[in-house]
Amino acid sequence: MADLEKLVEELSKLSVLEAAELVKMLEEKWGVSAAAPVAAVAAAPVAAAAAEPVEEKTEFDVVLKDAGPKKIETIKVIRQLTNLGLVEAKTMAETAGAKVLSGVGKEAANDAKAKLEAAGAVVEIV
Predict the structure, then answer these.
(1) Which of 121, 123, 113 is nearest to 70 (CA)?
(2) Hey, is 23 helix, strand or coil?
(3) Residue 43: which pLDDT band, with cuts at 50, 70 and 90?
(4) What are the residue boundaries of the structural domains of the chain, listed by start?
(5) What residues does 60 pair with on adjacent strands?
(6) What is the mean pLDDT of the chain?
(7) Domain 60-125 CATH class label
(8) % helix / strand / coil in the chain, to the nearest 5?
(9) Spacing of C-alpha 81 from chain mean position
């Protein structure tokens, strides 16, 4: 049996004109008509819109999932990254899902994540 994932990937690379040509060739080979039902025709513009390139995300949030076993080290890193006071940084470390940094570049987000993980924290970049 053909690898369907690979087939879908290859078909996704076709232009609209190439896809129309493929439909004609398959209609001739199989002796069928590919007249689309109304629902399928309505979905066609959605498929064309999905083919447009997606803009790459430029702003990221660094979210603290868990302070980890070395909470004091995590608090120190939070203070370095955010310039928060001790009480605010401690509160942030104790709050699961707290945003340590918001709207930062990819490099800054990855750097912050690395520092927090080195301190034992569990971090996610969103």
Answers:
(1) 121
(2) helix
(3) low
(4) 4-50, 60-125
(5) 104
(6) 82
(7) alpha beta
(8) 55, 15, 30
(9) 24
